[in-house]
Design brief:
It is a single chain. Helices cover 40% and strands 16% of the residues. The protein has seven helices and seven strands; from the N terminus they run H-E-E-H-E-H-H-H-E-H-E-H-E-E. Strand 6 and strand 7 form a beta hairpin. The two termini are 21 Å apart. The model has no long low-confidence stretch (mean pLDDT 91).
Length: 176
């Protein structure tokens, strides 16, 4: 109820700003620029999964790529699925909640956004699985903000921790 998801949805361009603007390195971003530069992994992965197979979900971002052959795209999707311990032929609706979160993370990996917001990654996943996902996304070059109520999880992954107090984002002194 503090506004974490609302702030996040605005930062990635899913929700319009009521007032003000969002700037990166002094450059104001439009809502469209936010949508193409900031990825958002929903707390509930079902909000972002809509295709019949894991492979089609992972490959969605490649659909308009004219520079890659169909075979190259298939190979890239297979490699990504393997990184996230997924089977390209599986039906996401028949998978566990945690597995659907891995599908969502694999899609984000393929989209290769420079900035990602991950909402409650640690629900339905072990710390080890969550840590692996974050490391894979970081290895892709993404800066990451993780929303979590789990201070132990945050301490494992975070370089900095912020909280929202009375509508203001406040950096915590040191890790918790």
């Amino acid at each position: 109820g503090s506004g974490k998801s609302t702030l996040s949805r605005s930062l990635c361009g899913l929700d319009s700003l009521v007032a003000g603007s969002i700037s990166v390195n002094g450059v104001e971003f439009t809502q469209k620029q936010l949508q193409t530069n900031v990825g958002y992994l929903f707390q509930n992965p079902d909000y972002g999964i809509f295709l019949p197979t894991v492979g089609s979900e992972i490959g969605w971002s490649l659909r308009n790529n004219k520079e890659m052959s169909k075979k190259e795209k298939e190979q890239l999707v297979l490699e990504c699925a393997n990184l996230f311990n997924l089977n390209v032929d599986d039906n996401p609706t028949m998978m566990s909640y945690g597995s659907r979160k891995r599908v969502q993370a694999a899609v984000a990996y393929m989209l290769n956004r420079p900035f990602l917001i991950i909402d409650e990654l640690d629900s339905a996943l072990t710390y080890a699985d969550s840590y692996k996902i974050v490391e894979l996304l970081r290895s892709n070059g993404s800066a990451i903000v993780i929303i979590s109520h789990d201070y132990n999880f945050a301490n494992i992954l975070a370089k900095r921790i912020y909280t929202i107090v009375d509508g203001n984002v406040v950096e915590k002194e040191g890790l918790l």
